[in-house]
UniProtKB/TrEMBL annotation:
Protein's organism: Spirosoma arboris
Classification of source organism: Bacteria, Pseudomonadati, Bacteroidota, Cytophagia, Cytophagales
PANTHER family per the UniProt record, alphabetical: ENDOGLUCANASE, LIPOPROTEIN
InterPro entries in UniProt: Quinoprotein_ADH-like_sf, WD40/YVTN_repeat-like_dom_sf
Name by which UniProt lists this protein: PQQ-binding-like beta-propeller repeat protein
Amino acid sequence: MKPLLLFLSFIGVLNACKPIELSTSETPVLEQDVPHKTYQPTGNVCLTSDGGFATVLLRQAFNQAVSLYNGISYITRNEVVVVKTDQLGQVQWSKLVGTGGSTPLIHPLSDGGYLVFQLIPPFLTQNTYQLLVSHLNSTGEVLTKQAVDGVNLGLYFTIQKILSLADKGFIISAHLGNESYFLMRFDEQGKLLWSRSYTQATNTLPGAYRLAATSDGGLMISWSGYNSAQPGGYESFLLKTDANGQQIWLRKYGLFTDNLTVSESTDKGYVLVGRNTSSTATAVLYKLDKDGNIQWSKLYPLRSTYAGTPIRIFASTDGYEFVFYAYPNSTEIVTTDLAGVEQIHQTRSEPVISSESGDILRLSDDSFVYMGLDAYGTIALTKTKPDKTLQWSSPIATNK
């Protein structure tokens, strides 16, 4: 097998965002102009300064479902919508932030405001993607719009997730293509500090990358993929970085596992959870030491008989909790002790989150808040108690 190499391209410390003028596509329009709304749970959910929650959704709006052959104009557009709720998930306000973009993400500010990111496609810019950031006040009014400047996003750029950090800053993860993972590090106020791409030079075709923060200010990146030269076909990787995204070490595992997601454990080691490729309705949990060496592994059959996909894993002083999307319409939450012995296994039929849509937030009392879509097209926030039993579920956006 070829030796494992990883090339990191540091794009540099960038000091500012560039102000832009609002284009015609960004001009606010009346709701009755395009009354039909179809929401997609593509954004994230965050805890706000007043103890409530905020999420950002992508919405497709259209005037009426008619054919152009009838001589009637068919208007359709993408809209980015922020929804703010109280502590019980009851909607306080919903605001249209921008149009023409995709893959929105939201970050709360300590003054009660928000930063909302949306990806503007090449045909609306100058032959390259543009990352647009809107600064909102505490009531959702747009104060400024700026383009993140100094980074060439190219023609194959896709946003993945936003990761909040202990210093109140955040990281946006993205893909520059099939093989290149891309991180942008921002401070608390949305100032871009650095950006870096990670491209592996192996025989492995990479799957989804996952990102986690560590207590020393660094990051963990996990991924897996198929390699025809590897017995069993699958290889998995774990990369440790410093606070500037520079590689510290890289580990390769010949595991029969894909879709790995990672978290730092309280002993400064790590836990990985993935899908068993030999039995896709089975979860696999790995405990690693601080250098990435495997200490033990355990299997957990899912209640769904179909393939499961890990969403997130969380570590605490008592054990580990991981969340799986189980095809076609359930979310499974498994809680273990520090030795990996299963303690609780919860199943939620609605709303459902998956690796492609929805989000999950863990609060300081170990309860979960997650956003997902139910069978009727309604997007809801759902909160569990610390023991993962249901506390409340509240609809926040209804398709019509």
